[in-house]
Specification:
The structure holds two protein chains of two kinds. By secondary structure, chain A is mainly α. The radius of gyration of chain A is 31 Å and the shape is globular. Chain B is an alpha+beta fold. Chain B is built from seven helices and 28 strands. Chain B is elongated and about 130 Å long.
Chain lengths: 755, 458
């Protein structure tokens, strides 16, 4: 950061003199960019230093497992991979339902390093891929910003912002081996290439843009953002009357090649011509042809006839294509907007219609403080930068404006889309900061103040006479007062320093936890590592059959697959709502209902996460209502959310809890035997602050197999059917020594045996 | 010498092990050793079939069904005892553990001694019910032995039971020239619950009923059970195929009734009972000498030309043709013989994921030494983790539940027919060809005509 500001307009004379030489400037820039990349990578290494080189969270575990499969079996096997260890017993056509970009990138790096005889573990490549890509992202941001402004400092500032902005770091710390790690670089670079192609009207750049777009499609489902933003940009340009052959050439090149490239990914396939999300790109492609044709016609025939022709043609074609679109959608040839898309417009939509989407925390609407938390001062510099784009308003500035508009809307709707907003915030903020610094950080006073003043005065008069053209004119700025200069520049430097400090603090405290390993502080201030997850997964790996099926809520599916290497029923790839609802029903129902479900799905072990002892709030009881809601979506008659609340509408786990709640499998598994840790009647749930009933729950169809050190993970084994044909409850009571009462048999008419 | 000895030992072991498919250690529980004499023929028969018999009384200190968590005996025969309970070594839990550990129990009851409480609660767990107060007597005023029970009518004479229902193998129908009657003297009947694990061997005739002889009333108003609902000899085969048999009358197995001549009401001549042969069959079944099925091997493979048809692959592709075979043997007294499914019954294969996608009859190929059941079929058009499942559970046959898991994958990218093979694709391919040619032609014309166009403009 500091380096960037110093170098771009250093106060030291020597540096100014040095910086005047063109090649020295280039060298300086390269060095600065290298430093920025270094800083970007370094700030993402907190987790490796604090914990170890470990894959984080949930999705990265799948990506890691897939990468290992790719490295072990080669590309074609990966392409045709049928994964029979997830979604038991349905299996998953993994090769055709993932974005392979990330794994293939790691695989290529791995084989490249092998070829260079650098023996490196695939895990380390996976862990460090995201930081490495962040360096490239910084560079791509530099290139993109340079297209926007002539100021040499803006690009470097943008690169530095991008390198350390927490909004981006949140998804790219070391170990966060997720699609976003590589996709943000591709996003920014594709945008850069698009701007370049648009500016030059070049087929070459357009093709390059399409190439990187294809790479982006291969890497992340968020590619739809590009698919919609580029056509939107083109559309806005046309509406502004800025149609040009440059636009025509670059857009058509990008669309034709990019669509072909995207269709090569099995998961995408024919989606670009069959779903509504991709229709804007196709529509604008057609629209451009139309506009180009009209331009040609206008140059060929007189304007009077042309106007009539124009209206008729435009109206006719627009009406026809709209009708066609509606007809095709109604006929089922084009898929209507998906639920995920609707949830972008109506934040309440998912909660009502698709609880599974709403249950993911990163799909929640963003809270306002999150913007400041993730972007700090950039968030208030951002509008200034957008304003400056309005001042110049070339084609590329329109792009930034459109991007800013949509990026901020989407970021407001969904937490995770903060990620797509961050690049444009960095670019816009960098434009604003560099404008400020370029103005205030010039040591010498403006050389010809009089003429400039006159010129600007004259200009202003002229503008007021002509009216409305002021915005497009270039205001002449210059500051004379050294105190003012010093004050503003000093304040700016202070802000930048605080920004760096904030970013480092956020990265270190909020985004560097692997979440599979929890850290807490002991009373004496030393760090205490809570490693229950890995402990339990290791237990599964060592003590169960290799094909023992584990049932857990879907959050832990990828981790069980990756760390314990055991088949799971559901995982974080939530493609089958019914299957997830089945698990939800098994967890939410009475044992008598759950047991046949578990038998049918051949479940051997059930894993639950319980935070009551430690006060770990991300446990299954707190997620339980989502299980109930998702199950209710499929079986509204058998599972009802209302039954899990007390009559007064409270969600409780203590003795006041509703009967349905107390009898649910999840409740029983969480609190089974929990009372034995405490003196009688003192059992306490530290997450929900509830005192538990003295009589703990009774489990008949499951037996406790393992409980981790801090009781975070509890694993239960599903009992086999009783050997002599009793139900589990009576078998268990017999084990305890209760004799059956004959009298109970006498009630009612005798049932005769017929065979 | 040593090798010869080892061969001899091996042969001896082979002979000894040939008695029952699950071991020869038999424990007989009786009130005292003197009672042995009354059952000498039955016990002698067992010994001659190769069982090593240990005798214990319930009070014995040394009596223990388990040693270090392993079964000490393979089979238990419980003869009536007078004690109210069976002591701490034969609690219902221990007996149930013995069944769960795959041990077999043959239990005998008698109307003369109340059933021990331990036995009553064990039977309750198995859903077999004894008359109230642990005591009951089965009488039949139409089918009784006129020579020995002309007053009390409590020695029932029954024909041999025959198969439980059509389509089941008949294990318990002894044939003899002398007569065809079973004597069931002084027995206690049972009623059975609805469980599929329970099946009666011998049911009371329609006119029989059970009452409590200790009740001194003239009129029997509270019948425990009557007719077909009253089971005289019942069995329970656990899920692990451990066998448990209740013989309602211990005297049925005694020497006295093995040789007795009985005369049915209205018959002129007395006939010899079938009890000895019946006892052999019941004890043979209980101690797993008959009706034990064994899966020799299971094999499935790809049944397509030009593919590697290796045995038991882990993964298939949808719509593959596969062949599944299973070889079964049945244990018959001292050896395994090829198993033949009874008439009007069938062995079926399920190919299932959550629910069966196919349920197919397996066709038998039976030779003198082997019986193989096989079927060839096409896998469903659904990928997933499937089970080849043979689930053959019939009364009196040990359970067969063979599950072999395979994955069925989707088509790989290079397994689809190429586009030029599909006739429907030809118009599109022609379109591609036309576009390519057209574009090349256009380029050629453009390049050729460009200079002249430039001249015109000038």
């Amino acid at each position: 950061m500091a380096v960037a500001t110093t170098a771009s307009s250093g106060p030291v004379d020597l540096l100014i003199n040095v910086g005047k030489n063109q090649s020295t400037k280039t060298l300086l820039r390269v060095i600065i960019l290298c430093f920025i990349a270094g800083a970007a990578i370094a700030s993402r290494l907190f987790s490796v230093i604090r914990f170890e080189s470990i894959i984080h969270e949930f999705d990265p575990w799948f990506n890691f497992r897939a990468t290992k499969y790719l490295v072990a079996n080669g590309f074609y096997d990966f392409w045709d991979w049928f994964d029979d260890r997830t979604w038991h017993p349905l299996g998953r056509v993994t090769g055709g339902t993932l974005y392979p970009g990330l794994m293939v990138t790691s695989g290529v790096i791995y084989h490249l390093l092998r070829a260079l005889t650098v023996p490196v573990d695939i895990r380390n490549i996976c862990v460090l891929l995201a930081p490495a890509c962040s360096g490239l992202t910084a560079f791509a941001t530099y290139l993109l910003t340079n297209e926007m402004t002539t100021s040499s400092s803006a690009g470097l500032l943008a690169a530095a912002f991008m390198g350390i902005a927490p909004g981006y770091i949140s998804r790219s710390v070391a170990g966060s081996y997720d699609n976003e790690a590589i996709a943000i670089f591709l996003l920014v670079f594709t945008f850069y290439l698009w701007i370049k192609a648009l500016k030059l009207g070049s087929v070459l750049w357009g093709a390059l843009c399409a190439l990187f777009y294809g790479y982006m499609v291969a890497s992340w489902g968020g590619y739809a953002f590009i698919t919609c933003l580029v056509p939107l940009h083109a559309f806005v340009l046309i509406c502004m009357g800025r149609f040009s052959m440059r636009l025509y050439v670059s857009y058509t090149t990008w669309y034709a090649l990019g669509t072909l490239a995207s269709m090569q990914i099995p998961f995408v396939g024919f989606l670009p011509v069959r779903t509504s999300e991709h229709m804007p790109a196709l529509g604008i492609f057609g629209f451009l042809q139309l506009v180009a044709f009209l331009e040609y016609v206008r140059s060929a025939i007189p304007s009077r006839q042309f106007q009539t022709f124009l209206y008729v043609a435009l109206g006719g074609i627009f009406g026809l294509s709209l009708l066609g679109l509606v007809g095709l959608t109604a006929g089922g040839y084009i898929a209507p907007w998906s639920g995920r898309f609707y949830s972008l417009w109506d934040t309440g939509y998912a909660k009502i219609h698709i609880p599974i989407i709403a249950s993911v925390s990163e799909h929640q609407p963003t809270a306002w403080p999150a913007f400041f938390f993730d972007l700090n001062m950039l968030i208030w510099l951002f509008p200034a930068g957008v304003y400056l784009c309005f001042q110049k308003l070339e084609d590329e500035h329109v792009f930034i404006i459109v991007y800013a508009l949509f990026g901020s809307y989407f970021a407001g709707v969904m937490v995770r889309l903060m990620l797509t907003l961050t690049p444009v915030v960095c670019v816009a903020a960098a434009i604003a900061v560099s404008q400020l610094l370029d103005t205030y950080l010039v040591a010498r006073s403006p050389e010809v103040p009089d003429t400039e003043e006159e010129a600007s005065d004259g200009h202003a008069k002229k503008a007021s006479k002509q009216g409305g053209l002021r915005a497009s004119s270039q205001p002449v700025v210059g500051i004379y007062n050294v105190v003012g200069k010093g004050f503003i520049a000093g304040a700016m430097v202070l802000y930048l320093l605080i920004f760096v400090q904030h970013c480092t603090w956020v990265t270190s405290n909020a985004y560097s936890s692997p979440s599979v390993v929890l850290a807490s502080r002991m009373p004496d201030g030393s760090q205490h590592i809570i490693d229950d997850y890995r402990e339990a997964y290791q237990w599964l790996r060592q003590n169960t059959r290799e094909d023992a099926k584990i049932m857990s809520w879907w959050d832990y599916g990828y981790q069980i697959g990756g760390m314990a290497d055991r088949p799971t029923l559901v995982d974080n790839n939530t493609w089958n709502n019914t299957h997830i609802a089945t698990v939800g029903k098994a967890m939410a129902s009475r044992e008598e209902v759950s047991y046949p479900i578990m038998r049918q799905h051949e479940v051997d072990y059930v894993l639950v996460v319980f935070g009551g002892l430690l006060g770990y709030s991300g446990d299954d009881i707190n997620k339980f209502l989502w299980m109930v809601r998702i199950a209710e979506g499929i079986w509204p008659d058998e599972v009802k959310e209302r039954d899990y609340f007390t009559p007064r509408g409270e969600y409780r786990v203590d003795s006041e809890a509703s009967e349905t709640m107390k009898n649910s499998l999840m409740y029983k598994m969480s609190y089974y035997n929990y009372g034995s840790l405490f003196p009688p009647g003192q059992a306490q749930d530290r997450v929900r602050g509830a005192r538990l009933p003295e009589q703990g729950p009774v489990l008949n169809t499951l037996e406790e197999a393992y409980t981790s050190e801090n009781w975070i993970i509890r694993i239960y084994k599903v009992k086999d059917l009783d050997n002599v044909g009793r139900d589990h409850a009576s078998a268990a009571s017999f084990e305890k020594g209760h004799k059956k009462k004959k009298a109970s048999k006498k009630r009612g008419p005798r049932v005769l045996r017929v065979d | 010498m040593r090798s010869l000895l080892s061969v001899l030992v091996f042969l001896f072991i082979a002979v000894v092990q040939a008695v029952s498919s699950s071991g020869d250690r038999l424990l007989v529980i009786l009130e005292d050793d003197a009672e042995k004499a009354g059952y000498s023929k039955f016990l002698g028969d067992l010994e001659s079939r190769g069982f090593e018999i240990t005798y214990e009384t319930p009070k014995s200190e040394s009596l223990s069904l388990f040693h270090l968590g392993e079964r000490s005996y393979d089979h238990v025969l419980l003869l009536p005892t007078k004690s109210k309970g069976l002591g701490p070594n034969l609690t219902p839990n221990i007996l149930l553990d013995f069944i769960n550990a795959n041990g077999n129990i043959l239990l005998t009851l008698s109307s003369s001694t109340p059933a021990p409480t331990s036995i009553v609660s064990l039977l309750l767990e198995l859903d077999i019910h004894l008359p109230p107060d642990r005591q009951g007597l089965v009488v039949d005023h139409f089918n009784y032995d006129t020579s020995s029970a002309s007053e009390t009518h409590d020695v029932l004479l029954l024909p041999s039971p025959g198969p439980l229902r059509p389509g089941l193998k008949d294990f318990f129908s002894p044939v003899s020239e002398d007569g065809n009657l079973l004597a069931f003297p002084h027995g206690m009947g049972q009623t059975l619950g609805q469980g599929a694990l329970l099946s009666p061997i011998l049911r009371a005739p329609a006119t029989a009923y059970s009452y409590n002889p200790k009740e001194q009333s003239e009129v029997v108003d509270d019948l425990f059970a009557a007719g077909q609902q009253l089971s005289l000899v019942s069995t329970m085969q656990a899920r692990n195929s451990a066998r448990f048999t209740v013989v309602g009358s211990a005297e049925m197995l005694s020497d006295q009734w093995f040789d007795a001549k009985v005369k049915k009401l209205g018959e002129k001549s007395a006939v010899k009972t079938l009890n000895r042969a019946f006892a052999k069959q019941v004890s043979g079944w209980t101690f797993k000498e008959i009706g034990v099925l064994r899966v020799n091997w299971v094999e499935h493979h790809l049944n397509e030309e030009g593919m590697s048809n290796a045995s038991n692959p882990k993964i298939y592709r949808i719509k593959n043709d596969v062949k599944y075979s299973i070889s079964l043997s049945e244990y018959s007294w001292d050896k395994y013989i090829p198993f033949e499914v009874p008439e009007s019954d069938a062995l079926q294969l399920e190919f299932s994921m959550l629910s069966p996608f196919h349920r197919l009859q397996l066709t038998p190929q039976i030779s003198s030494s082997d019986s193989t059941y096989s079927v060839a079929f096409t896998l469903p058009d659904q990928h997933g983790i499937f089970n080849f499942k043979v689930n053959y559970k019939r009364p009196f046959f040990s359970n067969i539940e063979e599950k072999h898991t395979v994955s069925v994958r989707h088509f790989a990218h290079d397994e689809w027919p190429r586009s030029f093979v599909i006739s429907g694709a030809w118009p599109w391919m022609a379109g591609i060809g036309a576009t390519v040619t057209g574009w090349l032609a256009f380029c050629a014309i453009w390049l050729y005509s460009a200079p002249s166009a430039a001249k015109k403009n000038q």
